[in-house]
């Protein structure tokens, strides 16, 4: 991942403890992954695996051993809204559509809720439910998950 700093330079960033970390309490910037299709959201699960939503319409999963899986053709345009729950469930929304999906077995996206108007943001609430912000409708919805 890269972040823009005020001077306008691009800096690679990496989480502490991940590949490229310089040691306890410090973190040297390093490139973690390249060749993505315009990533707009990323979450890291407790095992160190990553799930990335790409604006080009796919989801990329990098498992804890570094194996890559791309899930294509389900989402029209993933939104930045991607979350991981405390029990490592991953949810992503489709800004190009109107649905919220759960990633199952790192290979399948299953619909959880529909009828949002351009959902773009997602959060996990303290009670475990999800909050869905929809740009098109100017709404914030609560979605209960089992």
Summed up:
The chain is mostly beta strands and 146 residues long. It contains no helices and 13 strands.
Outline the structure in words.
The chain is mainly β and 146 residues long. The protein has two domains: 32 residues, no CATH class; 109 residues, YVTN repeat-like/Quinoprotein amine dehydrogenase (Methylamine Dehydrogenase, Chain H). The chain is built from no helices and 13 strands. It has a four-stranded antiparallel β-sheet with strand order 3-4-5-6, with no helix packed on it. It has a four-stranded antiparallel β-sheet with strand order 7-8-9-10, with no helix packed on it. A hairpin with a 5-residue loop joins β3 and β4. The protein starts with a strand and ends with a strand. The N terminus is likely disordered.
CATH superfamily of the largest domain: YVTN repeat-like/Quinoprotein amine dehydrogenase
Contiguous runs where pLDDT drops below 50 for at least 5 residues: 1-23
**What would you report as the Rg, rounded to the nearest angstrom?**
16 Å
The whole-number mean of residue pLDDT values reads 82
Trace the largest sheet across and list its strands: 3-4-5-6
End-to-end distance: 32 Å
**Domain module tally:** 2
Tell me the β content: 35-45%
Q: Could you say what the CATH architecture of the largest domain is?
A: 7 Propeller
The largest sheet, given as strand count, sense and whether it forms a barrel, is: 4 strands, antiparallel
**Helix percentage:** under 10%
Order of helices and strands: EEEEEEEEEEEEE
Tell me the total number of β-strands: 13
CATH class of the largest domain: Mainly Beta
The shape, in one word, is: globular
What is the number of helices? Answer: 0
CATH topology of the largest domain: Methylamine Dehydrogenase, Chain H
Structural class label: mainly beta
